[in-house]
Amino acid sequence: MNEKDRVNGGETENGKAENAEFSAEITAHGEDTVPESSGADTKKRTRAIIIAAAAAIAVIAVCVLGIAVHYLGMIDFTKSSDEEIPVTAEYLIDDSAKSEELIDYEKLMREELESNAEELVFTDDVINILLIGTDNRGDSDKSSRTDAMLVVSVNKSTKQVTVTSMMRDIYVWIPGAWTNRLNTAYPIGGAELLMKTLRESFSMPVDKYVVVDFYSFADAIDAIGGIDVDVSEKELVGMRDYYVEMNALFNDPQGTDVIETDKAGMINLNGKQALIYARIRNTGGGDFERTYRQRKIINAVLDKVKDSTLIQLNDVAEAILPNIKTNLSVGEIASLMLNAKDYLKYDIRSLRIPVDGEWWYETIDEMEVVCINMKPNKDTWYNCVYLGVDIPEGKY
Prior knowledge:
Blueprint: H1 3-9, H2 13-29, H3 39-72, E1 76-77, H4 100-115, E2 126-134, E3 146-155, E4 160-166, E5 171-174, E6 178-181, H5 185-202, E7 209-213, H6 216-223, E8 227-231, H7 233-239, H8 243-249, E9 265-269, H9 271-279, H10 286-306, H11 310-320, E10 324-326, H12 330-343, E11 347-353, E12 359-364, E13 367-372, H13 374-386
Parallel strand pairs: 1-10, 2-7, 4-11
Antiparallel strand pairs: 2-3, 3-4, 5-6, 7-10, 8-9, 12-13
C-alpha cells in the first residue's frame, strides 16, 4: 500500500493504537457504559449541588424569618422595671377597719416575710410565666381590672405543665408596705408589682408575664372550632345572667348563642359561650368555683390545640397575638414556639392557691378577703410544680 492509501484509505499506525486503546476501555466498563467523567467534571457537579442546597436553605431561612417577623410583629413587647411603686391612699386600708384577728394575721405575715429562712431549690428545668387576663377588649393597660391571674409552669424534667389559679381576693402584703387583696397589685403597679408580690409572698420565681385581653380568647376558641366542656344545669342557669351583656359587647342580636338549661352535659362551646362560662359567679362556689371554670377553659383549649391544623393555629395566633403585652424577649418567645409541640404532649394539671383547708374569710371595711396559711400553700405549689407531686384533691 502506497503512502496515500496508508493515510486516507487505511488505518495509520497511530489510528490502530488509538482504536485498540478505546476498545480496551469499552471492554473494561461494558459495551453500554460511558467512560467516567474527569475529576474536573465531578468537582463542577459537586459545586453545583452545594450551591443549590445553600440556595434552598437561604429560601427556607427567609421564609421562616418572614413568618417570625409577621407573628412577633403583632406582640406588644415591654421591658422589666425595678421602679418602686409609691403607696397611694386609695389602696390603703385604715387599721380601724381591721379586726384583732386580721391585725394578728398581718403581723404573722410580716414575720414570715422577714424570716423567709427556708431555702427552696429552683432549677432552670422549670419555666414560670404569669398569665394575666384582663376584661377590657383591646386594652391591656395596667388600669384594666384583672379578671384572671394564672401561673403557667412548664417542668421539662417531669414533663408536666401546671396551671395555677391565684385567687384574686387573697389578702397579702404588697411590696410598698401595705396590705390588700392580691388583684389590687396590678392596677397599682402593673405586672411588675404583681410578680414582685408573688415572689415575696409566695416564693414563686416569676419574672416573665403575658397580659392578654380575655375577650381575644373568644376569637381563638372560635378559630379551633370551639371547645368541649362538661357544663352542669346550675352553670347553664348562671350563664343566663351574661347573655344580654355579651351579645351587646360582641354586637350580636339579643338571643344569640343562648344555651337552654335542659342541655346540661358535654357541650361544644363557641368563644363567646366559653367566655360567659368562665365569668359565672353565682353558682354557690364564689370565686373558688369561678377560677376552677377558668382552668377548665384553659385546659380544654390546650387539649384542642394539640389536634389543630396549621390553618387553625394561624387563626389562633392572629386572634391572640395582637392582644398580648409581654416582657418575654423575642428569643424566649421563639424558643417557646419551637418547643410548643413537645410541651403540649406533657401532662397538663390544674392547681389553685389557696388549697383546701388552708384559708378562711375575713371582712375588712365591708370587703370580704381570703386569708391563708402561707407556708402550707407555698409548700404545696413548690412540691407540685418543681417536684412533680400529685395535685391535692379539692372540690374546685
